[in-house]
Specification:
6 helices; 23% strand; 196 residues; alpha/beta; Rossmann fold
Length: 196
């Protein structure tokens, strides 16, 4: 049975596009809806151009009331009967109240080799630390930030003279390979880590 996937995005959505473009043919999943907190998200516009349902729930009217914002997301998701959620550049921290019901069914991609460099500015932090290797991680989402069982990692070398932007571009290419490959396996029931 084909899994129904909701993809959350805040910006341009290049990882969302990579996931959607891979969900063809015999793939065990399909994008049912793309969700954003930003009506101007390039990811929302692209999803609409592909005929994929979209939902926009702006976080700003909710102020600091994250549970109310998340309740609005949950209500918007209800008609889609989702099996999985993929966070793909969704720049909002989700509370335990939202995450817990999706335990084992929500994936995220993070631009570092977790458990290193949770949070923001991962590329600059890797350079500042003098790392020789950097990369990205797909993991199951838990209430702890950038935590949870690792489903896949891809590595890139850190080169002499790299800037954070250089490193980010190299890592992003691997994100576009890793996330679709992990989702394909995970939707088929395979949760052992994929290492690229």
């Amino acid at each position: 049975m084909t899994k129904r996937v909701g993809i959350f995005v805040s910006g341009g959505g290049s990882n969302m596009r990579a996931l959607v473009e891979d969900m063809t043919g015999a793939h065990p999943a399909r994008a049912a809806v793309v969700v954003s907190n930003n009506a101007d998200s390039g990811g929302i516009a692209w999803a609409q151009s592909q005929g994929i349902a979209t939902e926009v729930i702006d976080h700003r009217p909710f102020g600091a009331d994250r549970p109310a914002f998340e309740a609005a997301i949950t209500a918007a998701l209800a008609p889609y009967a989702l099996d999985l959620i993929c966070l793909a550049g969704f720049m909002r921290v989700l509370t335990e109240g939202f995450v817990a019901p999706w335990a084992g069914r929500m994936l995220n991609i993070h631009p570092s080799l977790l458990p290193k460099y949770k949070g923001l500015h991962t590329h600059a932090r890797a350079l500042e630390a003098g790392d020789k290797e950097h990369g990205c991680t797909v993991h199951l989402v838990t209430p702890a930030l950038d935590d949870g069982p690792i489903l896949g990692q891809a590595r890139v070398p850190v080169l002499a003279g790299d800037t954070p932007d250089d490193l980010a571009a190299r890592v992003l290419k691997q994100e576009h390979r890793l996330y679709p490959a992990v989702l394909r396996r995970f939707a088929s029931g395979e949760a052992s880590p994929l290492l690229l």
